[in-house]
Amino acid sequence: MHGVFQILGDAFIITPKKKPHNWCGRKVYGCTPKMFNFEAILKQLQWVQSEMYQRYDLIDKGEEPPLTNFVVDEWRLINKNIPEAKEIMKEIITVAREANLRMIALAQGMQVKTWGFEDESDLEECFSDILIGDFAISQCLSLRRKHHKQSEEYAYWTEVLIFFKQSTRPCMVANQPAIIPDLSNWQRDITPKQDDAPLLPSEALGEPLRTIWKFCKEQADWVAARDLLRKGYSTLQGVNTEKVIEYFLILQEKGYGEIDLSGTSVKFKVF
Predict the structure, then answer these.
(1) What are phi and psi of 63, to 5 degrees?
(2) Domain architecture of the chain: domains with CATH
(3) What digits encode the pLDDT tens for the residues 107-128?
């Protein structure tokens, strides 16, 4: 999962522990000068809380604050060791999204008690749940049990369940089956910028995203996955149509273009 979060643009991480290869090139709070630095974690959570209210002052003036992503990992451990964290997190969960502060929280459980909010389960509605592996399969089974065995809904979730059990990375997002992008051949450029000039897409993107973006830019029109694969680029060897669509989704998420799902084939167009 750490690799998936590497595609985020402006983002920082709050976590008490990490391995050397995790969160490369990101600002991490809670692991320096040593791991389990809960004082640093509390300070950064307080910063998020303060930044949130300052952004609402901007919104009140008609300004749109920039989108900032941040990841909170090992929340149960943070909640256990920082008494103040629970109340701060409640505020962040409730109102930070409208201030363009988007939190991605990681937990090894599906229950509200994982977050320490047993008496405030409505806070769960502020999240879009992403379930992976056995959690996704369990949720699929739960959704199927809600329908009669002769219904179309039951048949649909049965097909999803079969797909999940054949997949190495079953995933559900907001109770819908999803595909986790394969980022094994993608690398993010973490070279520090020498000045404040914004990086061009050709400089900011790693392969094969750079090749895909460049080809689509040259076409100046909608590009189907099969059109891209016909070019025979070496950076796309072994990549199928489904993989190209995943890369299209990444480029759209990063703000480099948009996807058209209305036709018989998925197409992408660079902004």
Answers:
(1) -100, 150
(2) 2-127 (3.40.50.300), 134-177 (no CATH), 201-270 (1.10.10.10)
(3) 666 666 666 666 666 666 667 7
